[in-house]
């Protein structure tokens, strides 16, 4: 088993790829949990208020917050891997684009 975990694929061992995958999966699960909390609890709390501004605010913030958590999970997972400078630059550019899309 130890021999399998130490095999190299694209400058990383199987163990490093597995750790990165677990971090990415944890980010996605965390995003799903936050989405569930928003839909089950936060929205129900805002429905009880007299004003609609909080309902609108929660509706506007729900998806960007969840997407931001997923982006963070991908970022933290990929940062665990050893990559060439070229690959690192491209992944950072992709993250910047995703964050810009998320903010807009």
Structure report:
There is one protein chain. The chain is 81% helix and 4% strand. The chain has helices at 2-5, 14-47, 53-79, 85-103, and strands at residues 8-9, 12-13. A two-stranded antiparallel ribbon has the order 1-2. The longest helix has 34 residues, at 14-47. The radius of gyration is 18 Å and the shape is elongated. It starts with a helix and ends with a helix. 3% of the residues are buried.
Throw out a few tags for this protein.
mainly alpha, 104 residues, elongated, two-stranded antiparallel sheet
Entry summary:
This protein is mainly alpha-helical. The protein is built from 4 helices and 2 strands; from the N terminus they run αββααα.
Low-confidence stretches: none
Give me the secondary-structure category.
mainly alpha
Q: Can you write the helix and strand succession as a string? A: HEEHHH
Mean pLDDT: 88
Approximate strand percentage? under 5%
Looking at the structure, what is the overall shape?
Answer: elongated
Topology diagram in text:
Layout lengths: L1 H4 L2 E2 L2 E2 H34 L5 H27 L5 H19 L1
Antiparallel strand pairs: 1-2
